[in-house]
Amino acid sequence: MLYFVLGIPLYKGFCNFSDSSFHALHCLTILVFSKTYILHGIASPSLYTYSKIDVSLPLLMLLSVFNEKKEAIIPHSKPTINEEDVVAVSNTLRSGNIAQREMVEKFEREIANYIGLKGGVATSSGSTALHLALLALDVTKKDAVAIPSYVCTAVLNAVNYIGASPVLIDIHPDTLNLDVEDLKRKLTRHVRAIIVPHAFGLPADIEEITGLGIPVVEDCAQSIGATYKNKKVGSFGNVSVFSFYATKVITTSEGGMVASNSNELLGKVRDLKDYDNKENYITRYNYKMTDIQASLGLSQLKRLNQFIEIRRSIAQRYTDELKDFCALPINHKSDSKHIYYRYIIKLRRDVEGFLKLSKEKGINCERPIFKPLHKYLNLSGFPNTDSVWKRAVSIPIYPTLTEENIKTIIEFVKSCKP
């Protein structure tokens, strides 16, 4: 055991406590660490001596909790969890059926029904869903897969898991979706599949792409519920994939799904995602979702349309307020309905400076894509992607933003004169 003296002026000045809360902190510290601790020097306001106390990180953590002047940060992303979600997960835990069972099967059916497809196969993540989708399409290391450069590295990873060659495509500067004309220029006989993300919730020109005669994987990680010509995205390609990560439109904490109208493709995915109890041996995976995750997903799915309407309402506020202050990408097209997984603005000033200032003001803004894929691969020839990456910023948008949060974000962007 160690003995130490805690000087009040030092810690009090560091943490900005009021006298009353600092006294409460001392009382709570004693209760938390041990009821056998002895407090000395009550009569002295400047010095307290504690006996038999371990000097450890928990004390510093406790001090930080009581910092009254710490400003709240508006997160860039945040899950929308309510009591119904908690009850749904608790009920599954109490049932004892916590692996892949009935709740997973029900979630698969309900997602497929929502999109308008024959079936779905739940997976452990959006990344594993992409991997399985490419395997089901019989993509091999001899093949190439076309993907946009302005996308997260999970898409590139899925191609590399197969050992296939990525063919990077530039984006349209307004929609931030895959540029169809650049795609057409780069297609070769080696391209076995095209992965088409509906970027940030805005549908891509999916019918034109499916008309090229090459298998299409619709990446709906950011776009579940968006529509193109009155049909849900995810219902156009040979196969579609979804992500239910913590901050996606709906969440299972971690999780994903492959959906399709092809029973053959769904059968391949279902076989490959689970390695156990098989008659033959091939390389298979442990890519399963659990009933715990699925129960959360089912609860969230009930409110998906509500989530989307709130996102659209906030997006309209942003557009109305910010259209004269910064450039906005196309936020809607006549044949599409955006769900606003992200709300993107284009700056005329330095992005890094804007991001740093936003955090100083308690607003966590981010680049929509941390770094384009062609920069990781040291490639050139992507002018639209480069231009967007240098100027684009994503501001917070999600259902739990308060009216005060929204006003704070709008006023901050206006004040920056971006």
Q: Quick check: average pLDDT?
A: 86
Task: Indicate the CATH architecture of the largest domain.
Answer: 3-Layer(aba) Sandwich
Class from secondary-structure proportions: alpha/beta
- Weakly predicted, low-confidence segments: 1-71
- Shape descriptor: globular
What's the N-to-C terminus distance? 56 Å
Estimated radius of gyration: 26 Å
The first-level CATH class of the largest domain is given as Alpha Beta
Q: Largest beta sheet, briefly?
A: 7 strands, mixed
Named CATH topology of the largest domain = Aspartate Aminotransferase, domain 2
Key traits:
single chain; 418 residues; alpha/beta; Aspartate Aminotransferase, domain 2; Aspartate Aminotransferase, domain 1; 3 domains; seven-stranded mixed β-sheet; three-stranded antiparallel β-sheet; 15 strands; 15% strand; disordered N terminus
Describe, in plain words, how this protein is organized in 3D:
The chain has a 7-stranded mixed sheet, sandwiched between helices. It has a 3-stranded antiparallel sheet with strand order 1-3-2. Strands 10-9-13 form a 3-stranded antiparallel sheet, with no helix packed on it. It has 3 domains: 4-65; 83-301, Type I PLP-dependent aspartate aminotransferase-like (Major domain) (Aspartate Aminotransferase, domain 2, 3-Layer(aba) Sandwich); 304-416, Aspartate Aminotransferase, domain 1. Strand 2 and strand 3 (47-51) form a beta hairpin. It is an alpha/beta fold. Helix 4 packs antiparallel against helix 11 (291-301). It has 16 helices and 15 strands. The longest helix is centred in the last third of the chain and has 19 residues, at 304-322. The protein starts with a strand and ends with a helix. Residues 1-71 have low confidence and may be disordered. The protein has helices spanning 8-15, 19-33, 57-65, 83-95, 102-115, 126-136, 153-162, 180-186, 206-210, 263-272, 291-301, 304-322, 351-360, 373-376, 383-391, 403-416, and strands at residues 4-7, 38-40, 47-51, 119-123, 144-148, 165-169, 191-197, 216-219, 227-228, 231-232, 239-243, 256-260, 336-337, 343-346, 392-395.
